[in-house]
């Protein structure tokens, strides 16, 4: 491209790549939505105790973030953990905002904080795994 600063592409690849993070975020929700729908149907038609809902959300979060962060970092040269962490934290933030709007409850409790920490850690691990898939 004309007028592009030399080395800008290299500098961007060394930090969080927003396009790859957004693709990973989209993938994470493409995994999450069917899982949540299946779990909602399961809860509707069985006597499964609702107290285990948070565990199901955490399992879905781990699977979605791990897969999406690995996908988004497989072509990154360095700092895959940072890109993966961004996917995990953004995933949790979007999930929190959506649930808060739906339930009209913006409270931050231990479960929310635990979900953020798990999302960040799993995102980092997925990023590390994804960068090593090359």
UniProtKB/TrEMBL annotation:
NCBIfam families: TIGR04086_membr. It comes from Ruminiclostridium hungatei (Clostridium hungatei). The keyword Endoplasmic reticulum does not apply. Keywords: Membrane, Transmembrane, Transmembrane helix. InterPro entries: DUF3792_TM. This is TIGR04086 family membrane protein. The keyword Zinc-finger does not apply. It comes from the Bacteria. The chain crosses the membrane at residues 21-46, 52-72, 84-106, 112-133.
């Amino acid at each position: 491209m004309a007028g592009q600063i030399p080395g800008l592409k290299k500098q961007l690849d060394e930090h969080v790549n927003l396009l790859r993070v957004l693709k990973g975020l989209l993938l994470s929700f493409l995994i999450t939505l069917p899982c949540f729908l299946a779990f909602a149907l399961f809860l509707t038609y069985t006597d499964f105790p609702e107290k285990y809902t948070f565990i199901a959300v955490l399992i879905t979060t781990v699977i979605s973030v791990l897969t999406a962060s690995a996908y988004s970092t497989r072509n990154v040269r360095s700092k895959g953990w940072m890109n993966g962490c961004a996917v995990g934290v953004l995933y949790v933030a979007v999930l929190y905002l959506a649930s808060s709007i739906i339930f009209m409850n913006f409270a931050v409790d231990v479960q929310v904080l635990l979900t953020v920490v798990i999302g960040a850690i799993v995102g980092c691990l997925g990023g590390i795994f994804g960068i090593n898939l090359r």
